[in-house]
Design brief:
The protein is of the alpha/beta class. Helices cover 25% and strands 18% of the residues. Helix 7 (166-171) links the parallel strand 5 (150-157) and strand 6. It binds 2-acetamido-2-deoxy-beta-D-glucopyranose (3 copies).
């Protein structure tokens, strides 16, 4: 059997190229301490006697706790859940990860498989999403500009009684030079991302609102708090307006609860899914 240390080093080497490498490394670097409590049979099976005493230490830290009092990092990504809403479905996302190989069934390690629509949960759209010629030319999520996805961003509240029209956009008075804006809407108040059933009455951009943004602002990253930047009634027209120039990146289904309006440092990293016009994305704000 390979020693836990060698296993960890090998894993680190092979994952160092991944986009989310730093997050994975954090997880991996915690492995040796839990391994050391293991029995001789398999280092990951805890010695039953030490189980009760160590169980407190083994509680995984969940996203929501990163933004505890005094925290500087706000996680604005929704965790993937079976009961999170999924596009035009009443059933929610459903099962998206399962153990393909498990220690309980005699495997050396637990290994999960996953399957999920590229546009589920907190995700990003690439130009190929609504333009066939961009799709064919390869404008997939791996071509999105990390300089647009990372940098100063403005979080603001939009009026709760309308979709985002040209009139609404104008009333927000977003200064020239602002390149990234996260729009918090009625969707957050209605907690739509916590309802399993897809809801077509969500707030989003109407075509004239998208056009106003393109014509009158310097915004290159548009973030919203439900599954689409475009209102359901203007679904394709608004996407076409945003994505035509290939300069604007759309980040959808952000979790903007419990965040004060203002300026933050935004950091968003999609997966490098070649050939995909959408991808799950991890987004954080740093105060
Ligand atoms: C592996 O998965 C099994 C379920 O098949 C679970 O009981 C066990 O706790 C897992 N082991 C580890 C080390 O995560
Ligand atoms: C283990 O194998 C049994 C029998 O093939 C199967 O029913 C069960 O779902 C498997 N469990 C896991 C966690 O893979
Ligand atoms: C926004 O538009 C949707 C249709 O796309 C509609 O159902 C909803 O009522 C509108 N919301 C508001 C606040 O006007």
């Amino acid at each position: 059997m390979r020693s836990p240390k060698r296993w960890t080093q090998k894993a680190i080497r092979s994952m160092a190229h991944g986009v989310a490498a730093s997050l994975l490394l954090l997880l991996l670097l915690q492995i040796p301490s839990s391994l050391s409590a293991g029995s001789a049979a398999h280092p990951a099976y805890a010695d039953p006697a030490s189980c009760a005493a160590s169980s407190l230490d083994l509680d995984p830290m969940r996203g929501a706790e990163h933004d505890g009092a005094g925290g500087r990092i706000l996680d604005i990504t929704h965790a993937y859940r079976e009961d999170m809403p999924s596009w035009e479905s009443d059933e929610g996302l459903g099962r998206f990860v399962w153990l393909a190989k498990s220690m309980a069934n005699g495997s050396q390690a637990n290994n999960s498989d996953m399957k999920l629509p590229a546009h589920s949960g907190t995700h990003v759209d690439a130009p190929g999403h609504v333009f066939q010629h961009y799709f064919e030319a390869g404008f997939d999520v791996d071509t999105l500009d990390l300089h647009v996805l990372n940098g100063p961003a403005l979080l603001l509240d939009v009026p709760r009684d309308k979709n985002i029209t040209a009139e609404v956009m104008e009333s927000l008075h977003i200064p020239r030079g602002v390149r990234r804006v996260l729009f918090r809407t009625l969707n957050t108040d209605r907690q739509l991302m916590w309802k399993k059933e897809f809801d077509t009455s969500y707030v989003g951009f109407m075509k004239d609102g998208a056009q106003w943004l393109v014509d009158n602002t310097d915004i290159k990253l548009v973030g919203v708090d439900y599954l689409s930047v475009a209102a359901f009634d203007d679904l394709i027209p608004s996407h076409l307006v945003f994505l035509e120039s290939r300069e604007i990146i759309l980040v959808e289904a952000l979790n903007l609860e419990n965040v004060k309006p203002g300026i933050y440092s935004l950091h968003c990293l999609p997966l490098r899914l070649r050939g995909a016009e959408g991808s799950p994305i991890r987004c954080i704000l740093i105060k």
